[in-house]
Specification:
Number of strands: 7
Shape: globular
Number of domains: 1
Order of helices and strands: EEEEEEEH
Distance between the termini: 42 Å
C-alpha cells in the first residue's frame, strides 16, 4: 500500500466501525472525521485509539450507510483495520469513491434482506 508507515499520514475514520458507535452515518472526510496517526513501527501503523496495542492491517470491509432514506451496503472496501480493537481507517481517495458511488445512484448488483430489531 503506498504511503503506509509514514508518520503524520491522515486517514478518515469510518463512522460506526470499531469506534464504539453503532450508527450508520456517512463517510465524509470532514476535519472532525480525520485522525492523525503518528506512532509507527516498521511498515505497520500502531492503532490510534488510546491504550490499544494493535496495529493497522489492510483488509476489505463491508460498509452499511443510510443514504436518502435507503439502507445501502457497499462490499469490498479497502481499509486499514486494527488487529485488536477493529478501528477502521479509510484513505481519502476511498472516501471520495464511496461518495461518488452514492451520488451516482447506480443500480445495485444485489438486494439483501433487511430486518428490524424492534
Amino acid at each position: 500500500m503506498s504511503g503506509q508507515g509514514h508518520p503524520g499520514r491522515q486517514l478518515p475514520r469510518l463512522a460506526g466501525h470499531g469506534t464504539g458507535r453503532d450508527d450508520c452515518g456517512g463517510v465524509a472526510a470532514g476535519d472532525s472525521e480525520v485522525t492523525r496517526v503518528t506512532r509507527v513501527t516498521g511498515a505497520k501503523m500502531k492503532c490510534s485509539i488510546a491504550g490499544c496495542p494493535g496495529e493497522y492491517e489492510e483488509r476489505h470491509i463491508i460498509h452499511t450507510v443510510r443514504h436518502r432514506g435507503q439502507v445501502i451496503v457497499i462490499d469490498h472496501i479497502p481499509a486499514e483495520v486494527c488487529s485488536v480493537c477493529g478501528d477502521v481507517l479509510l484513505k481519502p481517495e476511498t472516501v471520495r469513491r464511496i461518495e461518488a458511488l452514492l451520488q451516482a445512484r447506480v443500480q445495485p448488483l444485489k438486494t439483501v434482506p433487511l430486518y428490524e430489531y424492534a
